[in-house]
């Protein structure tokens, strides 16, 4: 990891890597969002893939949400 990456990291780098803002998305009036093409390509997400929404909580308030391909989640 470069010094520049460390400045952009929004969490303490560790065994699982570093948290970064990859993109900002907007939720439409139907509650839907579009993942930008660059993110879909980086994560190899294709049309029809099922994603699980995971939450990381600190106290009673959800502070982060993660998307994981359902196939990847079953491997845990």
Give a verbal description of the structure.
- By secondary structure, the chain is an alpha+beta fold.
- 24% of the residues lie in helices and 22% in strands.
- The protein has 3 helices and 2 strands; from the N terminus they run H-H-E-E-H.
- Strands 1-2 form a two-stranded antiparallel ribbon.
- The radius of gyration is 14 Å and the shape is globular.
Task: Please give a quick description of this structure.
By secondary structure, the chain is an alpha+beta fold. It has helices at residues 3-8, 37-43, 70-74; strands spanning 51-58, 61-69.
What is the β-strand count? Answer: 2
The order of strands across the largest sheet is 1-2
Radius of gyration: 14 Å
Helix content: 10-25%
State the low-pLDDT regions, or none. Answer: 1-7
Topology:
Blueprint: H1 3-8, H2 37-43, E1 51-58, E2 61-69, H3 70-74
Antiparallel strand pairs: 1-2
Pick out its properties.
76 residues, alpha+beta, two-stranded antiparallel sheet, 3 helices, disordered N terminus
């Amino acid at each position: 990891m470069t010094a520049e990456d460390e400045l952009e990291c929004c969490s303490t780098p560790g065994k699982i890597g570093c948290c970064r803002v990859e993109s900002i998305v907007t939720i439409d009036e139907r509650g839907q969002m579009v993942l930008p093409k660059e993110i879909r390509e980086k994560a190899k997400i294709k049309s029809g893939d099922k994603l699980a929404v995971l939450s990381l909580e600190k106290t009673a308030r959800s502070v982060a949400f993660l998307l994981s391909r359902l196939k990847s989640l079953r491997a845990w």
